[in-house]
Amino acid sequence: MKLELLPNEILIECLVYLNTFEIFYSFDTLNSRFSHLIRNTSIYLNLQHIHKTKFSRFCSEILPEIKQNISSLHLSNKDACGQINAFFSLYLLDGYSHLQSLALTYLEEENLSQLKSILPLCTSLHSFHLNSSQIDDELIISVLPLGHLQKLSIKTLESFLIYVQQPTIITHLIISKCSLEQIRYQLLEIIPMLQYLNIKTITRDKQSIKSDTNHRAIHLKQLIIGQFRYPFDAFTNFLKKTPNLRSLTFTNAINDQKFINPNEWENLINSSLFNLNTFKFRLTCSNLCRDVVSYNYNRFQNGFWLDQHHWYTELLTNNTSHCIYTVPYISKSFELEENTKRSNYRSINISNIFKQVENLTFIYNETKDYSSFYFPNVISLKIQQKKETKYLQSLKSIVNLSNIKHLDISLYQKGSLSEELIEILRESSQLSSITIDPIDLKLLFNDKELCLYMNKIIKKLNIHKHGYYLFEDSNQVATFCEVFSNIQQLRCSFKAPNYIIFLLKRLSKLSTIHVYLRRISDRNLFYSLVEEVFRDCNYRIRIKDLRSNLMKLSIWIDRYYD
What CA–CA distance (Å, rounded) separates 190 from 167? Predict the structure, then answer.
């Protein structure tokens, strides 16, 4: 059946799987029916990782006509310096009467004054996500409308507990850091309907909280905890207040041996967690001997875990730590070291064990058998090699290279770069981003075949190395610009600002650049030079002082903006 023959209801369901830009640039001018349809449905607008040209044109040509239909908006300053400020400057959120979800990542100080006036007007917000380590979220929390808010993601609880005094209707909460006392004695009082709680780190509070009320989380169904800096007994006392918990995810570097004792978990589940049907964990031990960990791992292989609940576990060991985990492995990141060993009691398809791993660090050992490892969905691969040995066949046996989008070879062995790297580039059909040591990069310039491959596929390049400056003269800059003439994003270090001007003139497709360099004495002169380069372009520039003699320069460029 042809797409245009589908009824509107089905078309709308199909459009959910496309991003906003694909929808408008593919269907808006197709015919009047499609144009009317996409302009009169709820719009989920995600502006992360967007090229400045697309951002500018979308905001000027399309956004004015559809802003009333935006129900979800995600803005980010990452790799797009000043995006949040630019968006708010163009169109204030008071015009978005249907906005229900707002996510702001890599927020900066300059955004706070705008948000202070804009957020109170977003009275229909059901979901608010804030992710930024650079600011204190106090000002945001103080003006955040809570009337309809059900999902909230913030850095800490301090400001929230200060400004929110009455019970809310929030059901989903994500926190980067808080204390157990804050949860038990304060949080559950003002979020009594909490169903989903995700906390990266639960750590001890410096100031004790005194309260006679120990609230129960009777509505909590799903709990996810990263680091837990309390003893196991404190953990069990907390979970006893969650009688209706159905799903528990726990990824802790343990300091209490009880955490790897299956009998302790079995007693807790049988006595207090009657509704628990999903239990995922990764328990890492660095201060316990292998025999102790292996003994406890063997005790997980009984009827309660295997037959009654079907919670299967495996053991990972290396020279520095041991890890007991449920399968599939729950973390998105994995470091496959030279001596990493996997132990298991059941025959399980290895393609499913590490299917959730997206970021893999591969440290090659020529004597190691890799047959027990396979990572089918890795998109970011970091290769570390200490010896000049052939590793590609081993790598291909454990990773599906066709899924790789980013390659980090910043800790690669210099002498073995070219030959195996070319083969990786050939087989990694989605690869567009690479991180490499600038010293190694200079060596690669002599390999013409490799340079051709990198010129063709690499769009994002990171060659920043603290204390090292890549270019010594303009000839090296010219060579770099020739090899990487198609890059759109660049992160690097320079000794002199004049090289930056040279790059900006030569790299015609560059959209984002982050440069670490020595502090510029005459910034007005530098600004005038940049303005001369971009006299026909729309761009945003920011300079941030990092230390007494070091600064970071970021520029977000639209070279084709009219």
Answer: 4
Per the document, the length of the chain is 562
Torsion, Cα 131 133 138 140, to 10 degrees, reads -30
Burial of residue 459, with CB atoms counted within 10 A of its CB: 0-12 exposed, 13-18 middle, 19 or more buried: middle
Which three-class secondary structure state does DSSP give residue 300? coil
- pLDDT tens digits for range 102-112: 999 998 888 88
DSSP 6: S
**Chain centre to alpha carbon of residue 164:** 29
Establish if 369 belongs to a structural domain. yes
Task: Match 């567009």 to its residue by tokens.
Answer: 432
**Banded model confidence at residue 149, pLDDT cuts 50, 70, 90:** very high
For residue 293, give the 3-state DSSP assignment: helix
Q: Which residue has the higher pLDDT, 444 or 269?
A: 269
Integer CA distances (angstroms), 78 to 10, 51, 196, 556, in order? 35, 12, 28, 10
pTM for the model stands at: 0.89
**Alpha-carbon span 490 to 123, nearest angstrom:** 39
Which strands make up the sheet holding 489-494, listed edge to edge?
333-336, 359-363, 380-384, 406-411, 433-436, 460-462, 489-494, 512-518, 550-558, 538-547
**Lowest mean per-residue pLDDT among 3-7, 351-355, 543-547:** 3-7
Least confident of 83-87, 167-171, 473-477, 521-525: 521-525
CA dist., res. 337 & res. 364, Å (int): 7
- Mean pLDDT over 203-232 rounds to 84
- The amino acid that residue 191 corresponds to is I
Kindly tell me the burial class for residue 195, based on how many C-beta atoms sit within 10 Å of its own C-beta (0-12, 13-18, 19 or more). Answer: middle
**Does residue 45 have a pLDDT over 60?**
yes
Provide the β-strand partners of residue 249: 224, 280
For residue 532, count other CB atoms closer than 10 A to its CB: 11
Residue finishing a domain among 448, 483, 515:
448
Query: 3-state class of 74 per DSSP?
Result: strand
Q: Is residue 30 part of a domain?
A: no
Domain count, the chain: 2
CA 407 to chain centre: 16
Residue range(s) defining the domain that contains residue 484 = 459-562
Q: Torsion-angle region of residue 543: left (phi > 0), alpha (psi -120 to 50) or beta?
A: beta
Q: Is residue 443 part of a domain?
A: yes
Higher model confidence: residue 7 or residue 515?
515
pLDDT (0 to 100) of residue 415: 47
Whether residues 399 and 337 share a domain: the answer is yes
Dihedral pair phi/psi, residue 114, rounded to 5°? -65, -45
Q: For residue 270, what are the CA distances in angstroms to 231, 263, 275, 308, 312?
A: 20, 10, 10, 12, 18
- For position 562, what pLDDT does the model report? 40
Whether the upstream peptide bond of residue 145 has omega within 30° of 0, thus cis, is no
Q: How far apart are the first and last CA of the chain?
A: 40
Interval 364-388: pLDDT, tens: 888 788 889 999 999 999 998 766 6
Whether 368 contacts 396, CB under 8 Å: no
Dihedrals φ, ψ of 22, to 5°? -60, -40
